[in-house]
Amino acid sequence: MTVGYGSDEAMCDSWGSSEDWWETVPPQEACTRFRVFFPDDHQTVPRDIVDVMAALGAWRVWTGSAAACGSYDHRERREVHYLWPEGHPVEEVLHERLSGPAEAVAPDGGRTGDVRDRLVVDENAESQDDLEPRTKRAVAEAMDVSLLSKGGRYEVQSASGNRYEVDVIDESCTCPDWQQRSPEGGCKHLRRVDHEIKRGRVPRPDGRLPSP
């Protein structure tokens, strides 16, 4: 399961103009917004999520498609948002998961800025040993990746000097392999861009730089 969290007001200040979440419930002062992603084959929020968040005393404010705000790798998921007062004891647990012991937390307490700056994922998600063979080859090959524009458009320059445009939102590439075969899992350029984003080596699809 993947979750994200951040100050409700700071999130709205950062990208409220592009999302309608706050039309349902306006930004709440001194509250943390907690996002939980789940498979889109669930017609309703899974019971386990409902029970856990209820036990924490959080209240649900929104649910919908996760294919927004840089969540390009969650296209086949939905998400649900909860609020709780900042300073909730569970935040210390989250900080420890992300940054080690609570005393090592950054000065902002991990509760300001963009929620996408602190996604909590499986620790093994970025292990190169676990990569699919074709992705391993794409990662090892000499390529230069750069963000072309916000919205998930990247340029990949291969060792041969050829340049291709990759769209991580549409999962497409202008290379001949993609245009002719559309290989399952994406061409090597799409795989390489995906890997570079997840490793924090290039800006995210929303144009923001990765966290230090």
UniProtKB/TrEMBL annotation:
GO terms for molecular function: zinc ion binding. It comes from the Archaea. PROSITE patterns: ZF_SWIM (PS50966). Keywords: Metal-binding, Plasmid, Zinc, Zinc-finger. Residues 164-198 form the SWIM-type domain. Residues 178-212 are annotated as: Disordered. Residues 193-212 have a biased composition (Basic and acidic residues). InterPro entries: Znf_SWIM (IPR007527). This is SWIM zinc finger-containing protein. It comes from Halogeometricum borinquense (strain ATCC 700274 / DSM 11551 / JCM 10706 / KCTC 4070 / PR3).
